[in-house]
Automatic annotation (TrEMBL):
Residues 1-10 have a biased composition (Pro residues). The chain crosses the membrane at residues 30-53, 83-113, 125-143, 180-199, 253-270, 290-315. GO terms for molecular function: phosphate transmembrane transporter activity. It is a multi-pass membrane protein. Part of the binding-protein-dependent transport system for phosphate; probably responsible for the translocation of the substrate across the membrane. InterPro entries: MetI-like (IPR000515), MetI-like_sf (IPR035906), Phosphate_PstC (IPR011864), Phosphate_Transport_Permease (IPR051124). Residues 1-22 are annotated as: Disordered. Keywords: Cell membrane, Membrane, Phosphate transport, Transmembrane, Transmembrane helix, Transport. Pfam families: BPD_transp_1. GO terms for biological process: phosphate ion transport. This is Phosphate transport system permease protein.
Length: 329
């Protein structure tokens, strides 16, 4: 008499099948965590925007008589826009000057680290550049106001004298060096690590085959950089520059400690008492503000928020137009 073996008891499936089920569960959980993180970001951004609009509305809807009667505007001003426009102008001038100064230097440092320097030197220079990002802005402000300003005022005086031949620009330079040009130099040093770090990583992602193909065609080392590395990293450099611009737009303490402020729409970038940035103005006025004056300050903060949003939107548009050269391709 033959007996048939009974089938093995079910123990929940094979180990491979159980492993795949665990992986699916982990993937599903990670997807929900990632989605939740994105939603949190949108919620925080919306909350900030709602707060700014809600708190700025009393100042935006207040009449000139009310603003003057409560003495919430600087002397001689009767409208909120007379305050916001010069502050926006000063903020953009300081940030754009810093960007113009920092971007070429940062790209040069990034190229040196990624393609020219020996490995040990590259690591040391990269460490020193990253160390600049760890210095507090207060220290930058002290250095800029006490050390840089007295020295660089000679340079500004020389440039002002050279530009004085222009018939349409009566250039003046302050004797203290506390001008928006000096603040822009300090801002350039502060945003230098951001632009350098991002550009360096983008340049390192250049396909090796592109560089070898250029060398095989007889290109020099500079021609390889010009024809292979820079076109590949163009969108990354633009993104890095926009990150640095966002840092420069919102910087407070360094500008507050260096700049001798004035609320004017003036192109006298070497003279004192001409411009002021939004962030520095809020920091200097907020401790003693109350009532409608707080709403006025928040209204200027809303203007800075809008500028930052527009800058980021412009950066995304520029990068999308250069997507053929992005590191993802």
């Amino acid at each position: 008499m033959t007996t048939t073996a009974s089938p093995p008891p079910l123990t929940g499936g094979s180990p491979r099948r159980r492993g795949r089920g665990a992986e699916r569960g982990f993937s599903r959980g990670f997807r929900w965590i990632s989605t939740g993180s994105g939603i949190v970001l949108l919620v925080v951004l919306a909350a900030v925007a709602i707060f700014l609009v809600q708190q700025a509305m009393p100042a935006l809807t207040a009449g000139s008589d009310e603003l003057v009667a409560q003495n919430v505007l600087p002397q001689g001003m009767t409208s909120l826009w007379q305050l916001i426009v010069p502050l926006v102008f000063g903020t953009l001038v300081a940030a754009l000057l810093a960007l113009v100064i920092a971007t070429p230097i940062a790209v040069g440092i990034a190229l040196y680290i990624s393609h020219y320097a020996p490995r040990r030197v590259s690591a040391a220079v990269g460490y020193l550049v990253d160390l600049l990002a760890a210095i507090p802005s207060v220290v930058y402000g002290l250095w800029g106001g006490m050390t840089l300003a007295p020295v660089i005022r000679v340079v500004w005086s020389w440039i002002a004298q050279a530009l004085s031949v222009l018939p349409f620009w009566d250039v003046r330079a302050t004797a203290t060096g506390r001008s928006v040009a000096t603040a822009s130099v300090v801002l350039a040093v502060m945003i230098l690590p951001i632009i350098t770090a991002v550009s360096r990583e983008v340049f390192k992602q250049t396909p090796r085959l592109h560089e070898e193909a250029a060398l095989a065609l007889g290109a020099t080392e500079w021609e390889v950089i010009k024809t292979a590395v820079l076109p590949f990293g163009r969108s990354g450099v633009i993104s890095a520059a926009m990150l640095g611009l966002g840092r420069a737009l919102g910087e407070t303490m360094a500008v507050l400690m260096i700049l001798s402020p004035g609320i004017l729409v003036s192109f006298q970038i070497f003279d004192a008492g001409q411009q002021q940035t939004i962030a520095a103005f809020i920091a200097s006025q907020f401790p003693e503000a109350a009532g409608l004056r707080v709403n006025v300050l928040i209204a200027t903060g809303l203007a800075l928020f809008v500028i930052t949003m527009l800058v980021n939107m412009a950066a995304r548009w520029i990068v999308s137009r250069r997507k053929d050269f992005s590191g993802a391709n």
